[in-house]
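To: structure subgroup
Subject: Chain for Friday's discussion

All,

I'm putting the inputs and outputs inline so they're searchable in the archive.
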Amino acid sequence: MKKKRLLLGLALGLNLSLFGCSVENTKPQESTSSYLSEEPAVSSEKIEDKESDNSSDEEIKESETEDEIAENDQPVVEVKKYSSEEASAKTAAFLEWAAPRAETGNMAVSDFFFNHGAAGKGDWYAVTEDGEIQVQETIPEEKLPGYDAFDIHALGGVVFYTSLSGITGYDETPATQATAVGFHKIADPDFSMHKYLLADNGVVYELIGTVEEIGSFSAGYDEYADDGVSKPGAEAVESFVFKVSEDAAAQEEWARILTEEQ
C-alpha cells in the first residue's frame, strides 16, 4: 500500500510539474503575438511622418520659388550719382504717389523730412541697418567727408504723421514751422511718426517713433565735425537706426521711379 501511495504521489507531482511548464510556455507566445500585432501601426506612423516631411519639403520649395519670382519681378536699380535737380524730381514723384495714400490712411505726409539750425561744415548722415547714409553734403568741394565716403545717399525723404488739425494727404505746414518747433505743434503725439529716406540704391529706409522721440527736423541725423572725420553725436544717433521699410508698396514704387528712365 505504501508503494502504491508513493507511486500515486509521484505521478500527481509529475503531472502538476508538466502543467506548470505548459502554462509558462504560453506566456511568451502571447507576448510575442501582441508585439507583432503592433508592428504595422508603428510602421504606418513612420510612413505618415515621411509623407509629412516630404509635404513640408515641397511647400518650402514652392515658397522659395515664389520668392525667386518676386525678386525677379523687382526692378534692378542701377546705382548712380544724381544731380540735385534729378534727386528733387524723383522725390517729387514719390510724394505725388504718397499723398493720396496718406489721405486714404487718414494721415498727413510732408517732404520736409530734414532740417537743422546752426551747424558746422561737415556732412549730415543717418545710420541705417545697411550702414551710414549721406543726407546732406554741406560743402561738396571740401569733402567733409564727401560723397565718396558713403555707400548710400538719400535723394530725398518724406514724413508720415497724424495731423493735430485733421489734415490728410500732403501737408505744407512743416515747411512753415520754425526749426526749433519741428512737428511738435502739428503732429498728434498719440500716434507714431514715420520718417522715410529715399536712397539711391533703390531702398526706402524707415524710422518709426513718437513725436517726442523724432519730432524735431534733425532727429535721427548727425553731422560730421569740421574735420570730416569725427562725429560728435555718433552715440546719440546710433539709437535711431533707419530700417529697411516693410512698406512693400513704397519699396516697389521707389524702385519703379528710379528705373523708369534707365
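Points worth raising on Friday:
The helical segments are 2-73, 84-104, 211-214, 234-237, 248-259.
DSSP finds five helices and nine strands in the chain.

D.
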